[in-house]
Request: fold
Amino acid sequence: MTVKIGFIGLGNMGAPMARNLKQSGYDVTGFDIQAPCPTELVAASSVEDAATSKDIVVTMLPNGAALQAVTHDILPVMSSGSLLLDCSTVEIDHARQAARDAYAKSIEFVDAPVSGGVVGAEAGTLTFMAGGRPSAFARARPLFDILGGKAVHCGETPGSGQAAKICNNMILGATMIVTCEAFALADQLGLDRQKMFDVVSTSSGYSWSLNAYCPAEGVGPESPADHNYKPGFAADLMLKDLRLAQMAAASTGLSTKMGQLATEIYADFVENKSGSGLDFSGILKMLKANG
Ligand code: NAD
Reply:
């Protein structure tokens, strides 16, 4: 029998993911409070309708508050024994609360935030980092195989996927800032950007930010820098993830000073320096414009 999926949150990421599931033969019903439902899917009339009588409900929502609102509405109507698969990036505590609420209704829960952006969502090459019971992860695996190139089961505790995601993005945010600073410094020192790339990309300063996603226009592989910093991965989303990392660090009593500074720099970029809507590598543009 065809597995029935309810897909809630059909934005930049959710719509292509839902379409890919439909194309792979799943019976997919979609719902969003704002975005239109792709024509290939069955459009639900309400969030409850999207979750009723489904084997799996996938959520791809902007934040933890939206997840809380949606779980409040759908858990009472979801079938006992079904699976709630949340692919949004949310606070660890929100993932844990959703899991507790789901378990109380005998519903399985997996948190599985993604890396790979809209391009990865469209191409079915996302990376999933998942938290939840092994049995629930096994149930989600066929969906991960369609939507992604890789899925790592990060731990049995709900929120483990979110933990892995924010650790990764704290590294990414800080690394991108210092990569941009290095290009700005190279300019000041009269060092050709291409020469700097040629050296650093094969030296100990190499990183994904420099080698694969170079923030300098015309240098390295094609990246948002070559398209006037059109995202890609928006600075607003990087700021969101850095703030989640800071909240998580504070909740454990750990001081992460580089992560904190990266959060402040992205907040300034997004809120004061016209960075909202630009790619997160646009920090280089800000450094050149503002010194
Ligand atoms: P988006 O804002 O484009 O989509 C979210 C959708 O959720 C919107 O269409 C919104 O209307 C809908 N929504 C909000 N509240 C709802 C509710 N109560 N019921 C039904 N629908 C509701 O965001 P996105 O870019 O698709 O990102 C989704 C998630 O994926 C976020 O948590 C984001 O951090 C994460 N993420 C995004 C990217 C990216 O590059 N866009 C990359 C990795 C992870």
About this structure: The CA atoms of residues 209 and 282 lie 12 Å apart. The first helix runs from residue 14 to 23. The pocket of nicotinamide-adenine-dinucleotide is lined by residues 8-14, 31-35, 47, 60-62, 66, 69-70, 88-89, 114, 117-118, 233, 237, 240 (CB under 6 Å).
